[in-house]
Each structure stands twice: as C-alpha cells, then as structure tokens.
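ok so dumb question maybe but i'm new to this and my supervisor (M.) told me to 'just get the structure for Protein CHROMATIN REMODELING 25' and walked off. so i did the thing. is this what she meant?? sequence i used:
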Amino acid sequence: MFGGGGVSVRMEEEEDEVGWCSSDSGDGDGDDDIEERKSQNVDALLRGNLVVKRQSLLPRLLSVSQGAAVCRKPFKPPCSKSHASASAYNQDLTRKLSARKRFVPWGSSSPIPIPIPRSALDDSKFNVAVAVADVAEELKPSLPPGIDPLVLWHPQDSEDANANFTTITVDPLLVRYLRPHQREGVQFMFDCVSGLSTTPNIHGCILADDMGLGKTLQSITLLYTLLSQGFDGKPMVRKAIIVTPTSLVSNWEAEIKKWVGERVPLVALCESTREDVISGIDNFTSPKSNLQVLIVSYETFRMHSSKFSSTDSCDLLICDEAHRLKNDQTITNRALAALPCKRRILLSGTPLQNDLEEFFAMVNFTNPGILGDIAHFRRYYEAPIICGREPAATAEEKKLGAEQSAELSVNVNRFILRRTNALLSNHLPPKIVEVVCCKLTPLQSELYKHFIQSKNVKRAITEELKQSKILAYITALKKLCNHPKLIYDTIRSGSPGTSGFEDCIRFFPPEMLSGRSGSWTGGHGAWVELSGKMHVLARLLAHLRQRTNDRIVLVSNYTQTLDLFAQLCRERRYPHLRLDGSTSISKRQKLVNCFNDPSKDEFVFLLSSKAGGCGLNLIGGNRLVLFDPDWNPANDKQAAARVWRDGQKKRVYIYRFLSAGTIEEKVYQRQMSKEGLQKVIQQEQTDSLVAQGNLLSTENLRDLFTFHENIKSEIHENMQCSRCQTFDGPRSTEAQSTITDSESDEETSDIGGFAEIAGCLQNLKRSEKQVGSPLEEDLGSWGHHFFPTSVPDAILQASAGDEVTFVFTNQVNGRLVPVESIMSPKLQQKDPKKELLKSKQNGKQKPTPFSLHNRLPLQSASVGITKNISMNVAFKPQYSLVSKVLPQKRSCPANINDDN
Ligand SMILES: [Zn+2]
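this is what came out, is it supposed to look like this??
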C-alpha cells in the first residue's frame, strides 16, 4: 500500500502480504474482476447491444458532464486560420454524424444496417444527402452495403482548396469492423494527435475505455491510417513505437497482423537476446529502414532509451497499460518523456484513484505543460479542489472547489476519453450504505485517554518525530477502537508498540483474565461487551441469524480482529468461513463456493481487507461490515464490491463501523476529502507542502490525537449541519412529529424502498432522508440519524442499542428488483424473562436518544410485504455472561427458533 519512496514503514506490521489487486496495480496481470467485466463488455459488443457512456478518468474528483464531453467537433483545416462559415461547419458535422450510424458486429460478415432516419436526410438546412453522396462517390469504397466510410478529415471548400490537401479516410479494411463508439474513439484520437483540437498545444490523448471495448483495435486503426495518409497526401507518421508491458509485446504483434496483415512492416522485441534487441532497435531507427512500427516493453525501452534521442526516430508513441506512467519520477517515465515525439497516445483500462498528482503526471506526459507546471497545478487546481471537499469547508471554499474542478474537467476532457458499458450497472439490486458511529466502552475510553496523554504521544505532537512512530501510534489507537483485547495482547507480548500503554493491565476487568497466569480468558463470552463496535456487531449478527436468512461478510484490516470475530462465531455457534493472507489460492475458491452455496448452512464470512481483493465474488452474502476504516478508500470500496455485484439478487446493506470521536472518524473523514492519511504522512516534510496543507502540521497531529469522548459523531459536528440544527442532540418524543410541508420530491423519495420495507418511511424527518442521490463523499447530503428508529434498516434499528450514537445513510438505486429476505415474524414478542435480566443489567444506564427506541414501537407500514416483517418491537438481546445460550445451532437458515 505504500507506493513510492520515502518512508518504508508497514502500516500494519502483522498484515498479510497479499494486497488488493487494486486497479492501479499497473501490471496488466490477470485480475478476475477485470476479466469478468471484459468478457461482459465483449459479449455485449458482439451481441450488438453495447451502450457506452462517457466517464471521467478520475471519477471521484472530476466529471464529464460539464460540456466538453462531446467527442465530435466540426472539421477544422490544419493550417488555415480562416474560420469556415457556420453552414459549412454544420454540413461537415452532419456528414460525420451520419457516417457513424452503421456498423457490423465484430467477426460477422453480414452488416447490420441502421437506417438513417429519412427526416434527417431531408433536412434541407444541412443538405446531408448531397454531402453523403459526395463522399461516397469520391471514395468509391469497397465497403459492404450499409457501412458508411469513416472520414477523419476533409479539406474545406475555401481559399485553401488549391493547396494539396486530400481527404483522410479510414481504410475499408478496418472501418467495416468498427462499432459506433470505436469510430468515435478513432476520430477523437485523430483530432488530438493531428493537431486539429480546438485547443492549441494538444498533440496527445488518453484513451481509457473500459476493458473489452476495443482500445487495441481503435489504436491500430488510427496507427494504420496515419502510417498511410496525411493532410498533404504524404503519411503523417513514418515511424511509431508501441510500448507495452513485457507480457503484451507478442500480443500486440499478433493483433496488428490480425487486422492489417503484412501491410505494416514491424519489429517486436520479445524474449530476445541483448544483441537481438540492439540490432532490432538499430534496424528500426536507421533512416534507411522500411520498418514502420517497433513494439517494445517498458523495461527494454528504458534500458535503451538513449538510442531514440534522434528527433526523427519516432512520430507516434503509443503506451499501453499507461497507468504505470502515473508516477513521473520513475526512470521509465522520464526516459519516455524525453523521447522527442509529440504525438502520444496513452491507453489504459482502469480509472485512476482519488489522486490528482497521479492524474497530473499522466496528463503532463501526454501533453507536456498543458496544465502548467506542478506547482501551478497544485496551487490553482489541487489545493482548492481538495479544500472544497473537506466536510468542514465553507460555502465559499466549496464553490471555488467546484469551479476549479469544472474548469479542469473541461480542459482535460478535450484529450481524455473514457467510456464504460452503461448497461453493466443495471443488473444490480438497490444498496444502502450505513456509516454507524459507536461509542467506546468505559474501558476503551480509559485506555484511549491514558494513551493520548502519555508522554510519548505528547512528544510526537510537539517534536519532529519519525513518521513511523506516528503511524505506530495511530495503529495502536485503531486497534484499541476495534477491541481492547488487541492492546492487551500487545502489552503482554512486550512488543515495542507498548509505549503509551505502560501499566495499563490494571484497567482490564479481572474476570477477563485467568487468576493465576493473567492470560486472557474472555470471561465466558463477556469480552464482547468491552468494545462498543463489537457489542453492536454481536447484536447485529444475532438479529440477522434469528430473523432473516441473510448471510454476512465481516471485513477488518487486522488479523487479530478476525480472530475475535471467529471466537464470537464459535461461542455463538455461527457457521463461519475465514479468508486471510495465509489462505492458499486453491482454498480460496473452495471457501467462496461454500459461502455462495444456498444449500449449505453458512452465515459469516471473515475477510482480511488486504487479502480478499480481486475476483472474490461473495454474492452469497448481501450484508457486509467494514469494521475499521482503511487508509486507502479504494480498499474499502473494493471490499464492498464483493457483495454488490452481478448475480446479487437481494438488497445489499453495507455497514461502516466507526468509533465516535476517535481516530477512526478522522481517518474516514480524511478518506472522504483527501487521499487518506497514508500519502500525507509519507511525504517528506517540505515547506511548500506544508503551505498547501498536504502535510500533517502540529495542529493536525494534535487533532489526530484528540479524543471527543461524548460526541455523537465528530464528522457530523464538524459539518455544522444546517439540516439537523433544529433538533440537534437529544429530543423529546413530542419532537418526533413529522415535517411534511415543503419537502421536495427528491427528499421524499425512498430510493430502493429501504425505508418502506423497514417500516419507518412515514415517520422520517427531512434531515433523516438523503438529498437526491449524493456522492459517497458527500456525507452532508446523506440521511442523518440521531435515532435508530429512523434508519431504513430494521436489523440495525434492532441492533443499535445504547452503543450507536449516530448513523449516516445513503440509499443507492439498482435496476434489479430484489428478492426480499425471508424475515421471521416470530420474534416480535419480547421474552419477559430476558427483559427482566436486561432491565437489571441496564439499571445504571441513562437513556440516550439511541436507547429511547426500545420504548417506542415503530409504526409499521401496513402495506404489502412489510406486513410480514417484524419491526414493531426493537428486540434487544443482552449477550452478557448469561446469554451464551441464545443463538443455537440450526439446521436450516430459514427455520427460526427462539431457544428461550
Ligand atoms: Zn445533519
């Protein structure tokens, strides 16, 4: 996870070696997920029902919706400064647009004509019919009927007409195979590399289409066109270099031969001896050579880059899997950047993560200087954009951030094209994401305060300290938030991480420990209640197991936390499976198959967030808990995608547990606004970075190690949320009356029907409903819940107890109508005995808003399916020393028994 130089500290020292196959792994190696998506895309392409939609290369920060998303631009003469008349523009534009209306499926010899509507042709304003006829006659194409030629450039009928300009048209050999979006892509790249872009200094482009949409064919089409044609009749490109990962060199060679046969003389340097490589390169660069294309790996290019310093060694550079150029400090990147060739095409199938610096590196490689230098970029774009996304940003900062983001989008969308299959997301059921803030237990609070007040931590804040130390402290606090047992283990082992927890054994309740040896016994299951999050999780599992047939995935960064999950499952006799870094590849698939097998009585899947990345399909579960926030937001996102993916039939619940007022809220908050702490911390401390807020200042560090003990949610507090202002904090039951007036449609809609099914739709206040369809990082527009009764999830309502202090919810729509969970109505009645026990144990507790719900029966919606669901009573089992007997072994998940 720690890419790039500087500090080489492992964030979690005991962690598994296997990382997520994150989209930026950059190796172009087989990722099951990508392969799966690719085959779906190719499938749709072959069936002829592919619908593409344009997207941003940096999806979380930039958009393509602000203008400039149009691929097509009117023809423009390459040299003439004169502007063609509007009518000529329109004519050319229409000619092009009409040309892309037909296609044949890949691999098929029978074309599928898509008729151009007569009305469009008859539109005298554009005079289309004449234009099309002109072109057709001029070209005499040997195209099958129904396929229109693809004219990339056409000389204007202007004063330049006597210049020696010729039409540039894609060879019929290739155009017959191009799908509409591929025609568009070829045109887009042509406009960029031939200097036809309306923006000066654009000579390169990034084609970032999703896997399977045909980036290779589009590039080969352009390559072949430029090697044979040009504005003045002479080829625009004499020599081209294709740089690719080693594993793809021969693949490129085969693809070129497949599409254009022997028409392009090329040399591919693959598995050659050093002598062969050198002679191959010399052969290619020699002025007398007839070789037009060199295919070479990144490594080979880097080793021999000096051989390409001559200005005429290359007229077109194509970099495949180009996301590896996101770091401009690598030797390979610098060697390629130094190549005296302006026309650069970068191919990449994966969007970048939330990182503007990597984005800048790729853009600056493609079109050097187009966004100014890095200092200007940081000041002008990056700082305001990041600042505007901080939850605590002022309205002014947000506005500036949005403006700069829009401006940057418009600028880069002129030369970055990314399309995805618009239909792929349609097969998913609705999803709800719940950020659940839980308070620490008294023991956790005690240890937390003790630690942050220790002299080591104080010194860390005030003095210049090794970054590794700070990371170790953060890790210690994160572990404490998960469960004090993790800290106990650390202290007992006497490992260096103990500093700050000296003498802390005395805080632990003696009943957890064996009297003689002092080793951990867990107090016959009572250990669960020593952590706020774990306590909530235990109730959540119990309710799920008793009332539904849902299965759940539990994710943590720490194998020790997985150990605790496993112990919980054993004690409660829940069937469970575990996958972490030590699980062999062959075993992984067995575990996955087992979990997804409906005939088996499986319930919990324990997953290490570092081990379970790619290809894991856990659609047997429709609920997933992210127990601790990861440094890298992409990891959390990928974990959530294990269950919300093709094949999932049920509605999906993603829970993100955070300990209120602690480091976890801060980590998550930074995830949402910046690239996480990871990068921030690892950077070398320089004045310029501090000035831009890219580094943790003393103030930042102090904030990081501050504990807001009684806060419901620090993130919410920092928002200074205007939506909740009227009833911030505990409110009386009278205040529960619903505000129904002046609500907009957006606010009233219950996306995915979660609130209705949970029986709380009728009672929701405005602040408890999300505003429209907010982005993941826009927590301000999510539903805000001080009370569990309003959370559109019956299971969480019942499981919240006194530990949950605040919940953010975000409902996401899916086109798939979900198969509803089987929920048992049996457990609506409270067990009087249990209630008695509970009231004895809870005697000392003060009612907080989240505990009020136990006394407030919900009004279940009296329609349809909700009748069958038990929501009315917030059933709250108390798993303490007495409750080990509660959930018992069952043979069938749907067969619900209350053992009491
Ligand atoms: Zn609010």
